[in-house]
Amino acid sequence: MFTTPAAPRILTRLTKATTPTIAFSPVLSQLPRQQRHQIRAYANPADQPGFESILDAPPTLVRAGQKRHGPGLLLLIAIPVTAFALGTWQVQRLQWKTDLLAKLEDRIIKPPLPLPPQVDPAAIHDFDYRRIQATGRFRHDQEMLVGPRLREGENGYQVITPLEREGGSKVLVNRGWILKDKKDQRSRAPEALPQGGITVEGLLRAPWKKNMFTPENRPEIGEFYFPDIEQMAKLVGAQPVWIEETMEPDLIEEMNAVSVGKPIGRPAEVNIRNNHAQYIVTWYGLSLATTVMLYLLVKKPPASTSRKIRHVKDWS
């Protein structure tokens, strides 16, 4: 190596400039000489034993939250499980409703039974939708109107008339629907208010409960929003027996009945809805969809940026 007379002085200056120095404090000056030499030796962190630089051990970046999904994951797990349970419950309800409809259809096709003079209210449930016949005379002076009720877009009422039977006992007969304009009996034709003895054929119905959106009846002013059989029977002194008069008029007869205010009875059929198959499809479909969402969430790969950084090893 070629040197000049000034080279020793230049090398000395470069060595002093590149060597880290430690300012001596009063505390450091009181330490033993050997310990002071160790502190000077380790003034640069790279000189310490076990030191690893970023080149030796490049960092690995991991996407935050990759393994911890929090409460949201638990909620997403609960949704398909709950939906599957509800779908299974609807399967059971479908079977129950199918059996019920079959039983009621079997009752309705049987010949009508004569209604006994006294009816046990506890036995009515076993004869729900059973066709019966009852003879007596209508008490039009005790008529009650339940409504409003819509029929084919027209507003009207259900006409409830007590049927007084031999011996003075009464039962409630739902004669059918009339227009709102025929609410007043004076607006109806005489044929809409039959007098004398009459035989009624209809369906014996069990009591039912009103829904939470229906207002309470106001019998003191003659307003009934739903058929409360116990309440209405007590009001007119009748047995808590409800008969729905049946008829199957053709179009001409129906139009004539509407015009004269004659109640239009119901057809002799079971009108209970059975939508459980739709509910089964809905709940099982929701369970399947949310299960797929859960799978995609759990198996989702890390973001592309994190994946690229994780494989970088050249930090120079």
UniProtKB/TrEMBL annotation:
Species the sequence originates in: Sphaerosporella brunnea
GO biological process, one term: mitochondrial respiratory chain complex IV assembly
InterPro entries reported in the protein's UniProt record: Surf1/Shy1, Surf1/Surf4
Transmembrane helix found in the keyword field: yes
Taxonomic path: Eukaryota, Fungi, Dikarya, Ascomycota, Pezizomycotina
Pfam families per the UniProt record, alphabetical: SURF1
Name of the protein this chain belongs to: SURF1-like protein
CDD domains: SURF1
Keywords carried by this UniProt record: Membrane, Mitochondrion, Mitochondrion inner membrane, Transmembrane, Transmembrane helix
